Amino acid sequence: MFRPFLSLRPLLRLAGFSAAHNGVLPPSSAVAAAAFTTSTATNLKQLPPRPKHPPESEIEESFLKGSGPGGQKINKTNSAVQLKHLPTGIVVKSQATRSRTQNRKIARDLLALRLDELANGSQSRAAVVGDVKQKRAASKAKKSRRKYKKLAEEKEKKGNVKEEGGRLAGEEEEWLEEEEDGEEEEGKDEGGRKEVTTLGGTGTKRATIVEVENTRNER
Amino acid sequence: MPRLRPSLFWQARREISPLAAQLLPACRDLESAANELRWIREHVQDTPSSVPPGLRVWNLVEKRGKGVPLQYVLGTQPFGNLEIQCRPGVLIPRPETEAYTLHLATLLSQSQHPPPHSLSILDLCTGTGCIPLLLLHALHASLPPTTALNIHGIDISPAAISLARANHHQHNPLPAPASPPLSPSHQRTLTFHQTSIFSPTLLSSLLPTLFPRSSSGLDLDLLVSNPPYISASDFARATARAVRNHEPRLALRYAARWGWCRPEDVFYARLLEIAAVLKPKRVLMEVGGMEQALRVVRMVGRFSSLLGGDGDGDGDGDGS
Q1: How far apart are the first and last CA of chain A?
Q2: How far off is chain B from A76, nearest CA to CA, in Å?
Q3: How far apart are CA B274 and CA B270, in angstroms?
Q4: pLDDT of B228
Q5: Closest residue to A71, CB basis, from B69, B70, B320
Q6: Which pLDDT score, from 0 to 100, does residue A39 have?
Q7: Distance from CA of A93 to the nearest CA of B (A)
Q8: InterPro entries in the record, alphabetically (chain B) (predicted)?
Q9: B 207-236 residues with CB below 8 A of A?
Q10: Where exactly does CATH 3.30.160.20 map onto chain A?
Q11: B-contacting residues of A 65-94, CB under 8 Å?
Q12: Of residues A46 and B152, which shows the higher confidence score?
């Protein structure tokens, strides 16, 4: 509800009311850049940068494949990459894509995130991103709860007024019931997402030391 | 192939999806069934079509469940940073080949100081064209623009050559012909030719037109090849069912005898014969396992003593 105003805020700051008073228009490029912001600027500013990959000398890389014949004799589709960070013993694994080149990069990203988490704790990027997502999900859930509460109240009121208006009231009830089903589903979805975000990533499963990345990274 | 327990199918249905259970006969375990199902869904999501997505997923899963290689089902295989197109009738690029091709590209671009004036590469039995394409991409990015690249791929199969050309068309790092052309000495080209490497005219008429002459032979920096190398007994016993039933035999094994060597080593004899005439600076040939590697090394010794060339063989074993 407040998003359009949020995105306008930097525009107002840039233009300044004094300029508007003098009849001087701000440079058009600045207006365009500010006006097309789609996300809230406040969150983006606070996020710590993506952590850098650890040096290759500290990583032990292994490609997981079965023993036995290779080359032309078999046709593997699995190109999982497992990394071990030697100083800390953290192990991460990626089988997100079919491409080994991509998996190597994703595994390094993941390892960098874990090391960042280990070093910076609650100030790390993974923790901050997780927090932001959790807050966003919570506020969404709150809004939807509020909306359907309001709808339910309205329905009750209408029900009181049109108690004798048989068929019409029935129809409306049906429609409202559908809406409620929708809410239930949304709630479930939210629960699932929350579970994921507390683990601090996009659909990552976390064990004590081994982490498997099965999803493609957000790019 | 050991029998899969029925409980595994039930587990796949319950924990992943009924579609994963359908993939199990081909994938053999839950983890890879889940992965392949995810990749099939991602493929359907990423490629637009008028057919409803659910139906497409179902069709692809059915095909894969019957044992068709995933690369033929999806039509691609990642190779380095390229997505190489795959079609039935042409061998699917293997990860071992990918690994040594990337290694080769770093060797070629880093080992020489100052960077060479030009590099010429010949790939025999090119298949999808994956090796020359990845070399072209990697070298194009890492070498200075003053180095010319002259790369040629040769294969006997018309299906392979047309697929290689399609792949080249899709992954062309070079500027379009409309943009200002580089000076002739700095051109970078990749061409595919359809011919048999056993053809008697290969050495006498085709190759001399592709590469400039040098003092000893032709001016060739690298001869690379991934020839058919599976023996008849290995093809019957040690080769995976999906490979045996769906990939072209032409690219996997050679059944006839040729001169004094074993059928599975015939290609190496011919490759060394070609190398003896062209005298390339480096030779790289993929072999199937340690025993074959040793036989090929012995063969290299025999050829260099016979022909007086400097055999610089670089075999690549595939731990079988």
Answers
A1: 27
A2: 8
A3: 6
A4: 94
A5: B320
A6: 59
A7: 13
A8: DNA_methylase_N6_adenine_CS, N5-glutamine_MTase, SAM-dependent_MTases_sf
A9: 226, 228-230, 234
A10: 51-65+77-163+184-219
A11: 65, 68-79
A12: B152
CATH 3.30.160.20 assigned to A51-65+77-163+184-219: yes
CA–CA dist B177, A69 (Å, integer): 44
* Binary contact (A100, B78; C-beta < 8 A): yes
> B135-172 pLDDT, tens per residue?
999 999 888 888 889 999 999 999 999 999 999 999 98
- Cα angle B12, B13, B18 (rounded to 5 degrees) comes to 115
CATH topology of domain B95-316: Rossmann fold (3.40.50)
Of B36, B252, B318, the CB nearest to A77: B36
- Chain B residues within an 8 Å CB radius of A75: 69, 71, 92, 94, 240, 242-243, 247
Please write the tens of the pLDDT for every residue from B203-249. Answer: 888 888 888 877 767 788 999 999 999 998 899 998 999 999 999 99
Instruction: Show the beta-strand stretches assigned E in B133-281.
Output: 148-155, 188-194, 222-225
Q: At A124, list the tokens.
A: 């790390």
Given CB atoms, is B318 within the 8 Å cutoff of chain A? yes
Q: How far is CA B13 from CA A136, B23, B43, B319, in A?
A: 34, 11, 22, 35
Q: Which backbone phi and psi does B256 adopt, to 5 degrees?
A: -85, 155
Asked if B247 is an interface residue toward chain A (Cβ–Cβ < 8 A), one would say yes
Q: Which residues of B166-190 are buried (b: 16+ CB within 10 A; e: fewer)?
A: ebbeebeeeeeeeeeeeeeeeebeb
Question: Chain B residue closest to A94 (CA)?
Answer: B35
- Pairing mode of beta strands A210-213, B76-79: unpaired
Task: Report, as an integer, the average pLDDT of B59-78.
Answer: 96
The ipTM of this complex is: 0.83
Query: Which chain B residues touch A101 with a CB distance below 8 Å?
Result: 78, 80-81
- Pair of tokens at residue B227: 């020839």
B98: Cβ contacts below 8 Å, ≥ 6 apart: A100, B79, B80, B130, B134
Give me the residue spans of the domains in chain B: 6-67, 95-316
Residue with tokens 């874990």: A114
